[in-house]
Amino acid sequence: MNDLAIDWNAVPYFAGLNAAARRRIMDAARLHHYQAGAVIFNEGDPCAGLFIIQNGMVRLYRANAEGRLHTLSLLRPPSTFNEVAAVDGGANPFNATAVTAAAAYVIAHSALLNLMASERTLLANLLQALAHLNRDYLERLEDMTFRTIPSRLAKLFLREAAYDGQICEIPSQLTQEEIAAILGTTREVVGRAMRMLLNAGLLRKQGRAVYVVDQAGLAYLAETNTLRNPPLNRCPLSVEDSQSEPG
Amino acid sequence: MNDLAIDWNAVPYFAGLNAAARRRIMDAARLHHYQAGAVIFNEGDPCAGLFIIQNGMVRLYRANAEGRLHTLSLLRPPSTFNEVAAVDGGANPFNATAVTAAAAYVIAHSALLNLMASERTLLANLLQALAHLNRDYLERLEDMTFRTIPSRLAKLFLREAAYDGQICEIPSQLTQEEIAAILGTTREVVGRAMRMLLNAGLLRKQGRAVYVVDQAGLAYLAETNTLRNPPLNRCPLSVEDSQSEPG
DNA sequence: TTTCAAATCCAACAAAAGTTCCAGACAAGC
DNA sequence: GCTTGTCTGGAACTTTTGTTGGATTTGAAA
Sign (positive/negative) of CA torsion A88, A89, A90, A91? Predict the structure, then answer.
């Protein structure tokens, strides 16, 4: 396996550090390897440190007593994770597993404390990173509070799809099971929601691949939790589509 | 109104600062007053700065298009809020209103940047505060993902109640409407959940006040989303309570 | 090709949550 | 006392989500 480092400047909070600082950080990091499916750490276990993904894919998730999963993130290089525990030294706040074979640099809590004490830029950068993380979680919280599952699914497609004019393909090969874990629901419900988006004309399917047809329609659904009758190929006059409101 | 400062050491990230540093921070802070019901700032508006509550009660909330509210926090002195926007200078991530007449010290983003640049202890403390905030949101996310509403209500009672041996009273005078906003649901649903907890013997009511009767039962419900048949005054032998599992 | 396992589709049902509506209870003020 | 507005209790109903089970498709391996 190659131990070539990723571009450490691609990590938001390592950017802008001088060469000496970056060297000290790299010296504090240890490269760990994980087989596909291997557990990296578990929720509640003592702080595993800060992780910088070198290669492979990592899943962060939480699980409830009945075994249902909530996938918080699917991460690739140069993503990092477990900043919260690495900073405060508390227990890991979620589980982490290697989806594919993976490698990651790990900086222990104590080592990070030393680095932060000597490198004020790193400290400031980490603060910005945590603020950003916080906004991210706040948005997820809003999704879970206010959005229906078709709406969350629409949002996922909008985010995941590689935009290419009007017609977009969903890039990642996510199974419905995996999508369900991301949305915090079950496979069957995702299947239903998918069918709804398909025969509402927002998505189109070819074989197993799914394409985004109506980006604006997905956005409308994500915002309002309701379908907007697609005015795509319809004559805008005289149709009305039983949408007339009596009141 | 009295402008006596709260004990600034009670604010987690002002603790441990020397006198000079604390003076510079206080110099950067401006006291603002708000009438009951007044808007402090709105979600999406440009960064309003860092707030340190002096007196009164403040509500942080989000709202969706249909006008449903999600109360993120109800805060009293010496709580602080809007750290995220104050640190990264971005838009406010939620709405803030004064529940009662209130006053708060405000430190603008630019002023906070200066302070953080000169006071490394403040920087380090803010980092810890954001890490803590992050854990808090992660737990809320889990609540919304995995817990039923009776379960969330049970958790709320466990947290809000002032523990006093076995029987505990819920201290804050929350209406069902306010509880609903905290749990992210509607008043009627809270009412139903409340009735369920009452006739399951977990809570008791006297007039309008609600008392916690079975703390362990509430915890069980919060953990498992299911009621545990109360083995309180029952003989532990020979009852079985139709709990026998055929498989 | 055949075969198999995984992924999907689909219907029917159960449970949870949201909605609508109205009747009482209670407290504050007249 | 009475009135008014807020809060609560509770039924009936709809929608959404979760669950179960079987049929079908798909892709890769044998």
Answer: positive
